[in-house]
Amino acid sequence: MKKAYWIGAVVVLAFLALGLSTFTKSMTPYVSFDEAKASKRTVQVMGALEKGSSRYDTDAKTLHFTLVDEKTKAPLPVTYRDVKPANFEEAVSIVAIGRYQGDAFHAEKLLVKCPSKYQGEEVEKQYGKKA
Amino acid sequence: MSDTVRAIGFAPGTAAIWAALLFGLASIAVYLRALRLETSGAPAAETSLAIGFARRLYAAYAFSILLASVLLMTLLMQHDFRVSYVAAYSGRELPLNYLFSTFWAGQEGSFMLWLFWGAIIGFFVVKTAKEQEAPVMAVYLASFLGIVAILCKQPPFRFLPQVPPDGQGLNPLLQDPWMVIHPPVMFAGFASLSVPFAFAIGALWRKRWDGWVVRAMPWALFTFVTLGTAILMGGYWAYKTLGWGGYWAWDPVENTSLVPWLFTVSLLHGMYLQKSREKHRKINIFLAIAAYCCILYGTFLTRSGVLADFSVHSFIDLGITGWLVGIIVVFLVGGLGLLAFRWKEIPVVAEIDPATGKEREEPFLSRSVLFILSVALICASAIVILLGTSAPILTRVTGKPSQVATSFYNITHAPVAILIGLLIALVPYLSWRGEAPKAVARKAFVAFAIGVLGAGVAFSAGVRGAKDLAFIGFAVFGCAANVESVVLFVRRKVVASAGGYLAHIGVAIMLVGILISGAYEKKTQVTLVRGEPTQVGGRTMTFTRTVLVNEDGDVKQRVELDPTRLADRRAKQAMEVEVTSGKGKVWKAYPKMFQNERTQQLMANPDVRSTPLMDLYLSPQSYDPGSPSRIEGIRIGLKPGEAKSVGGVSFTAKGFTMDRSQMNANPPRVTMNAKFLVGAGGKTTETTAQLVMFMAAAGGGEGMQQAPDVAIPGTPNGRFRVSRVGGNDGSMEIEVLGLNPAGDLKPPTAESFSVDVTVKPLISLVWGGFYVMMAGGLLALIRRSRDAHAAVVG
User: Fold this and answer.
1) What is the ipTM of this complex?
2) Residue B442 pLDDT > 50, yes or no?
């Protein structure tokens, strides 16, 4: 019986080791636009969508748009070779995960933060003022 | 209205929550008193009197919770927009089923739903806990009081200072039938996690090490079924409505309900081992504590705002982060602390071999060893997922918060899945005492041969790579082995005991479905021009027209809609695509693309055509209504005084004047006279361009504008006009035409629809396997409930 527990412990530790080694490899750090441009690995950046900058190239099936840093207002051109996510234009902010190559950030995944998330806050803002 | 009145809001509701807190605390106190009487050997009559009183206090607690829930639901149904929660999450124009689901659309309501199930489940715990009632109910109640306290601080009944005419409405993504039933099932699972936890703590308290397992096992199975069903429903909803093409994204919100479920599965195997062999006592208590604390931790991750930048789902911070952390610390430190305190007292049962006089060592090929391995394996999987999900918090300590890519989960779980296939396959052939390898090989031969055959079939169907083939081979082996066992049980007429094997069959089927539908899907992006048949992977697809699909699923044109019917008012725009299969079968698909009127969000729902062998998944990407040929210029923005040149002509904005003299004309208008310096061919001319803006007529309607073209001196055909005047800085936009010798004529574009067409082979096995797994769970639940009912334990 003891033997079995040792084997069990080895299984857990082996997977933890696999987990930890994969963990560091698959890490996608949040970085600034400048850091993203300098980095060669997969990173994530966050910014606001520049109004009117999005364009879908139907031939290349690629979405092009520009993110603007919320603090410094620096722009970052982004391409995304996939579906334009739902609610893209209405996003409060967009998180792009990918890497910078050539002259644009090539996103593999986009997370779109919608205003509806803040519904509860919105109603307080609108009707929360004292009459 | 004073701030206090506002914070209390709808008084009966807030009062009910406070009453629940007080009755809950009182019930715990009396249960603890009963426990002290019990352990001090007081007369049985005195103890049962205390227990009876504690039960009545529990009933008062539970009815307060139920009352608060009913009141919140009533306020939602009555559109009482004085209440902030009602105004924030519901609206007048909602059908009854979606109005119902606004109850749990926000944070406070979903906590309320959690408590609601806790209150109901508690009545059954009182009935079934028997000799362990006092400690179990005390801990069980305590596990909910933290949430009750959060709702006392943040009651869902708060008033708004001004009453809005209508609510904000329900998030359109949640307006789906699956989202009406998914959260209630999920929270029933969450609430039931408190039961094994309470029994485990009760065992530590009373120092009775085996009895709790018998009583808690049906509850762990209840969690297995409810939480499992809810997780899969969530995945199915994502697959059917979100349109990104999958059912599982390893999103933190999904992971935080998967991890407690995995701990529960691990606990179930440990409990089975303990019931049969009186082993595994410490680890089972640890697993029960871990499963409960993980649901608290998951609640913290998804509701405190720590993951706001990492998850599509996460909520914003309501100011309850500190409370949640406090609750986790209390239960984690309290639970594990008690376990550590009692660790030495928990007896380890050693089997002495009479022949040698030494402790008996089970051979490797025994059921005991296999169960320990399965517990370890599932636990390892849960810990690894927990690690990945916590990445943003773990990395925050060292610097920049980071997230792991989803590949992390896929890489780590490929070996887990293969090993699970192998363990599942071996279980039916092993007894607790163990077998000789040769005997196992002889018994397992047929199932193993079927597994090899399965891998062979997969290879001929196009599955490649040693890892994938091993994956399929072991899964089929596992499936065949357990089918053999179930058949045996049915023949012996002891179907009730086949639950575990049936669940294993389901797991094996799911594994095959997950691998094949994920790794071997075929995705094509096509743009379908209206009326033109297009070949897509052996099928012919034609985008025939745009239609409206109402809530009942009827396809209509706009004129056919009946505005008096809610189902018609909620009709959504869809694209009709006629699909002809390779065999000549024709059907119509209706992927939807529409704008939610309230939030203006653009939504897309895929159309899924399911057959047993594959799903055809049409996910809308974009729709272009087409346009006739038109003349299009180059648009440039100019700030006052700024100079820009285009096509060899320079423009400098010199400001503008506004002529408001015709504000009373019909229609009223304002004329802007904008001055420019235009430089072309070495000559600079001052030019004035006009923009006439017609004010919107009373009662609404868009304002119109007119801007006559102004010729550019020194060019044969060049002209420009003011296209927009905007901003407080006096900037404007002009459109320049005719500078391009080839002309600025844009050719007409056709009406077209871009769609992702994905073929997902064998995805039906994911759902089918899941049904089988849950059927096994239910069978085991019935069997273990009967056991628990009949059992007499200390």
Assistant:
1) 0.75
2) yes
